[in-house]
Amino acid sequence: SKMLFYSFFKSLVGKEVVVELKNDLSIQGTLHSVDQFLNIKLTDIDVVDREKYPHMLSVKSCFVRGSVVRYVQLPHEEVDVSLLQDATRKEAVQSRQQTSS
After folding, report:
1. Is 30 helix (H, G, I), strand (E, B) or coil?
2. In whole angstroms, what is the distance from residue 77 CA to residue 75 CA?
3. Which pLDDT band, with edges at 50, 70 and 90, does 101 fall under?
4. Helix (H, G, I), strand (E, B) or coil at 28
5. How far apart are alpha carbons 36 and 42 in whole angstroms?
6. What letter would DSSP give residue 20?
7. Helices within the chain (DSSP H only)
8. Could you tell me if 42 and 32 are in contact, meaning their C-beta atoms sit under 8 angstroms apart?
9. Chain-wide mean pLDDT for the chain?
10. Is there a contact between 36 and 66 (Cβ–Cβ < 8 Å)?
11. How far apart are CA 73 and CA 85, in angstroms?
12. Is the pTM of this model over 0.70?
């Protein structure tokens, strides 16, 4: 399932996203790149809660380790739900076939 998310996030490069970290910091920015570990590079960033994280105001781009991400908020118009559902179903069928053989 990690490869499914990797492919999905790669299709969102150049789009505006909000990444919420496990420490409650939320960073809005343009998705610049993502790797197979779901590490994310954001550019043109802004923190959602500026008063709580004033030290982040001068930061313009950042690298976020995939293991510290809680949520990624995506632009609604960019998400093809039916395509995601189909890919998820295909992956589930493939994993069932692999475990039964």
Report:
1. strand
2. 6
3. low
4. strand
5. 16
6. E
7. 2-10, 81-100
8. yes
9. 88
10. no
11. 18
12. yes
pLDDT of residue 2: 65
> Is the Cα torsion angle 36, 5, 66, 97 positive or negative in sign?
negative
Which amino acid is located at 4 in the chain?
L
For 58-95, the pLDDT digits (tens) are: 999 999 999 999 999 988 777 777 777 777 787 778 77
Q: Which amino acid is at 81?
A: V
Tell whether the model's pLDDT for residue 100 goes beyond 80.
Answer: no
Q: ∠ at Cα 72 (66, 24), nearest 5°?
A: 80
DSSP class of residue 94 equals H
Judge residue 32's burial from the number of C-beta atoms within 10 Å of its C-beta, 0-12 exposed, 13-18 middle, 19 or more buried.
middle
Tokens of 42: 């954001």
